[in-house]
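Q: Given only this backbone (346 positions), what sequence would you predict?
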């Protein structure tokens, strides 16, 4: 059993079928093919606007760097959560590529604190501190929590009032949308996002992410930034066709609803044991809980899951489309044995 990450999972059968169907003959390279054109039209349809530009990328770090690098100049600063993937897990790539300083914002349950956002926006020291020009938020957060509609509107308001552009890192955005019962078009209207990194890999794609710029005429040279960021695929059809399939017939929602439900079921079974401390609200497809090293060592042979934070003794369970309730039930048989063994040893 594997509850480590969606990245560990295979490719969704429908995505793989679409890839195989597109694997036929010669087509123009670098996104000049019919598969890419159709995918771009699909993006315009699901977002409900033609005033956007969509670009396909290889991976999340590259997609984020491309998005943020297109919105900033090298003397700028980028505001981000202090637990964001951008800040904690993308090494020096963002600052190296964009040339911008990352300013971390304080968070609660993974979500930025508005008071710290306003403090960082207003912090200035002539030319000695780079002015903030972009805020990037993760939806859902690294802890699986969600910015609700009200919170998104508040963030959007402060960004507009302070001339700050908003980038959304949506590596798992589909899970958030399913939990919010929200469409892609509604999300952009609510959040006022200027750019969005839309995750594919964690939603069943073999590989690939997308970056969408809204009211895109405001931004210059996006195609050059795409190339500069080394994210322009020569065989672009193989990324584009996957997104076309993911957005077709609500496949993204089926996957996200399934994985969110698994997390809720896991939480339900965990609470039945009477021996658990959940670290953060369970709102999407991830569950974080407290677990000592002894218990972790007993369980790691039964199932793969992350030791997330050693100091806080937190572990993470992330559910993918291949996971099942049967697997969760099997895990809890072993979990009950482990906690029973702990109580006997104490």
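A: Predicted residues:
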């Amino acid at each position: 059993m594997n509850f480590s990450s969606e990245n560990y999972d295979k490719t969704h059968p429908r995505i793989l079928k679409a890839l195989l169907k597109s694997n036929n003959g010669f087509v123009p390279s670098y996104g000049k093919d019919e598969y890419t054109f159709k995918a771009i039209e699909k993006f315009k349809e699901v977002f409900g606007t033609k005033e956007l530009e969509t670009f396909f990328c290889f991976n999340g770090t590259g997609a984020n760097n491309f998005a943020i690098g297109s919105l900033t100049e090298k003397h700028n600063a980028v505001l981000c959560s202090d637990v964001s993937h951008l800040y904690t897990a993308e090494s020096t790539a963002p600052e190296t590529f964009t040339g911008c300083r990352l300013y971390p914002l304080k968070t609660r349950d993974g979500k930025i604190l508005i008071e710290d956002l306003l403090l960082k926006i207003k912090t200035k020291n002539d030319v000695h501190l780079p002015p903030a020009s972009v805020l990037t938020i993760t939806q859902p957060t690294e802890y699986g929590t969600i910015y609700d509609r009200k919170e998104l509107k508040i963030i959007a308001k402060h960004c507009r009032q302070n001339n700050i552009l908003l980038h959304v890192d949506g590596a798992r955005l589909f899970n958030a949308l399913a939990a919010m019962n929200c469409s892609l078009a509604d999300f952009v209207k609510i959040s006022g996002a200027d750019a969005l990194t839309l995750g594919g890999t964690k939603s069943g794609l073999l590989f690939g992410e997308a970056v969408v710029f809204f009211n895109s005429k405001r931004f210059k040279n996006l195609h050059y930034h795409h190339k500069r960021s080394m994210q322009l695929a020569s065989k672009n059809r193989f990324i584009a066709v996957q997104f076309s399939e993911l957005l077709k017939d609500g496949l993204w929602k089926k996957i996200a609803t399934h994985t969110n439900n698994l997390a809720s079921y896991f939480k339900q079974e965990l609470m039945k044991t009477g021996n658990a401390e959940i670290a953060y609200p369970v709102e999407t497809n991830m569950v974080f809980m407290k677990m000592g090293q002894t218990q972790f060592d007993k369980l790691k042979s039964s199932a793969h899951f992350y030791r997330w934070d050693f100091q806080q003794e937190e572990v993470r369970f992330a559910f993918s489309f291949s996971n099942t309730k049967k697997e969760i039930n099997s895990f809890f048989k072993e979990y009950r044995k482990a906690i029973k063994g702990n109580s006997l040893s104490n």
